[in-house]
Amino acid sequence: QAQLVESGGGLVQAGGSLRLSCVASGRTFSNSYMALGWFRQAPGKEREFVAGIGWRSGRTYYGDSVKGRFTISRDNAKSTVYLQMNSLNPDDTAVYYCAAADRSYRDYTSASKYDYWGQGTQVTVST
């Protein structure tokens, strides 16, 4: 059974940094996910793609609003994906969700391409 558990959220001042982690359990390397990603959802807004990474290829994808500020990475040995968030601003305030994709696509920027979701972790950026 696939399971994704996020951690690392919290309260940070504008301009600060946070690192989110997501442990993806329930798979071995031979049947690993195709990609892992991060999405976020702020109150009253739709879920937004933040970043994604091919699990074996390491290819990365970023949403326009976070390019140059956020970095996604993975540690295959620990089955963990990270989201390093720098230069945070209040617009980054949201619940951040980790997601995993089972199938191969050309890119992983759409929520519809992901099959499993974590419970989410709150990130709040104060002024």
Structure overview:
The structure is a single chain. The protein is mainly beta and 127 residues long. 0% of the residues lie in helices and 49% in strands. The chain is built from no helices and 11 strands. The chain has strands at residues 3-7, 10-13, 18-25, 35-41, 48-54, 60-62, 70-75, 80-85, 94-101, 116-117, 121-126. Strands 2, 4, 5, 6, 9, 10 and 11 form a 7-stranded mixed beta sheet that branches. Strand 4 and strand 5 (48-54) form a beta hairpin. The protein starts with a strand and ends with a strand.
Brief descriptors of the model:
127 residues, mainly beta, four-stranded antiparallel β-sheet, 11 strands, 0% helix, 49% strand
Summarize the structure.
By secondary structure, the protein is mainly β. Helix content is 0%, strand content 49%.
- What distance separates the N and C termini? 40 Å
Strand portion: over 45%
Give the overall pLDDT as a whole number.
93
Series of secondary-structure elements, N-terminal to C-terminal: EEEEEEEEEEE
Total DSSP helices: 0
Tell me roughly what share of residues is in helical segments. Answer: under 10%
Residue stretches low in confidence (pLDDT < 50, at least 5 long) are none
Indicate the radius of gyration in whole angstroms. Answer: 14 Å
Q: Can you summarize the main beta sheet?
A: 7 strands, mixed
Number of strands: 11
Structural class call reads: mainly beta
Q: How would the global form be characterised?
A: globular
Topology:
Blueprint: E1 3-7, E2 10-13, E3 18-25, E4 35-41, E5 48-54, E6 60-62, E7 70-75, E8 80-85, E9 94-101, E10 116-117, E11 121-126
Parallel strand pairs: 2-11
Antiparallel strand pairs: 1-3, 3-8, 4-5, 4-9, 5-6, 7-8, 9-10, 9-11
